C-alpha cells in the first residue's frame, strides 16, 4: 500500500517574506522555540493573580473598610454613643445579658489584658513595616518603635491617675467612722466605697481602636510597592531617566526593599486581618461598657481623654519634624499620597476622568469594557504612548 501524501497546513501563495514562504512549504507544524519575541518599548507588568490571591485581596479590602474607617466620623460616633446611650442607660435599666456580667470571658481575658493584646499585634506590625520602609536601617526602626513606647507610657500615666482619683476622692457608704474613709479600709470592713471612677475600660478600648487604625494606615498603598520596584528596575536596566518614587534609592537599598517586601507582605496581611478582628472586639466591648458599666460622666471623660491623647500624639507630635519620631508609613522613600493631594497632569486628567463617571468598578478598580468601533480612538504613535505612560507613572500612589 503506497503511503499517502500529507497536505501542508499552510499553502504557499508566493507572497510574503522568504522566511514565511519557507516555513509554509517545509513545515507542517508551528515551531515552539520557547523564546518569546522581543517587543521593545513595553514596560514590565505584574504576573497574573491566582484564585487564592484574589480571595485574600477581597478579605483585605473588607478589613480596610472596617479598620481604616474615617477617624473623624468614628470619633463622632464614639462620643455620641457614650453621651446619648449612656445617659439613657443611667435612667432606664438595660436587659441583662452575658455581657452584663463582669466575669464574662471577653472582659476577663481580653479587656482586662487589652494593652497586652494590643502590643502583640502592633509591635510585630511596626517592626516589619519599619524594617521594610527603612531598607534595614536601625535608626528608622527605633524611631517607629518609639511610638508604641510613648503610647504605653501615656496609657500607664492615665490609668494610674484614674486610680488615684477614684481612691482619694470618695467616701465609704453607710458609715460615719473616720477610720474607714479610705478605700482599702472601707473594703476590708465589708463596706462599699463610692468614688469618682473614670472608666478605664472606655479609655483603653477607644485609645486602642484609634492606635490600631493609625498603625494600620501604613498598609494603604503597600501592595503597590511591588509595581514601583518593577518600574524602577526597568528604568535602571534600560538606562531610562526614572521619575518614580524609588528613584533616590541606591541599588543596594532597592534590592533589600524588593526582598523584604516579598517576604514580609504575607505576614503583614495576616496581621492586618488580626488587627481588624481585635478592633471589632473592642467596639463590641465598648458597647457593653456603655450599656452596663459606670455612669455617663465617667465614661464620657474616659473617652475624651483617649481621643485627646490620640490626637496630641498621632496627629500632632509624631508629625513634628523636630520631635525625632516618624509617623506610620514614613521611611527612606514615599510610596503613597492621599488622592486629594495628588497633582494630576493635564494630559492624564482627560484619560482618568472616565473613572469618575459611570464606569463600573470592582473593589475600587475600573472594569474595562470593550468600546464600539465608532468610539475607539485612533492609534497614537509610539512617542505619544510612551509620554502618556510616563505621565501616569508620576501619579502612582505608594
TrEMBL record:
One Pfam match? FIT
Compositionally biased tracts (Low complexity): 12-26, 370-380
- InterPro entries membership: FIT, FITM1/2
The protein's location, in the record's own words, is: Endoplasmic reticulum membrane
Any one Gene Ontology molecular-function term assigned to this protein's record: coenzyme A diphosphatase activity
Could you tell me the membrane topology recorded for this protein? Multi-pass membrane protein
Which regions span the lipid bilayer?
75-94, 114-133, 271-293, 300-318
Superkingdom of origin: Eukaryota
The ranges of region (Disordered) come to 1-47, 361-398
Q: What is its main location?
A: endoplasmic reticulum
Q: Give the GO terms filed under biological process for this record.
A: lipid droplet organization; lipid storage; phospholipid biosynthetic process
UniProt keywords, alphabetically = Endoplasmic reticulum, Hydrolase, Lipid metabolism, Membrane, Transmembrane, Transmembrane helix
* Chain intervals with Polar residues compositional bias: 381-398
Instruction: List the GO terms this entry assigns under cellular component, sorted alphabetically.
Output: endoplasmic reticulum membrane
PANTHER family (alphabetical): ACYL-COENZYME A DIPHOSPHATASE FITM2
Q: What is this protein called?
A: Fat storage-inducing transmembrane protein
Source organism per entry reads Cotesia typhae
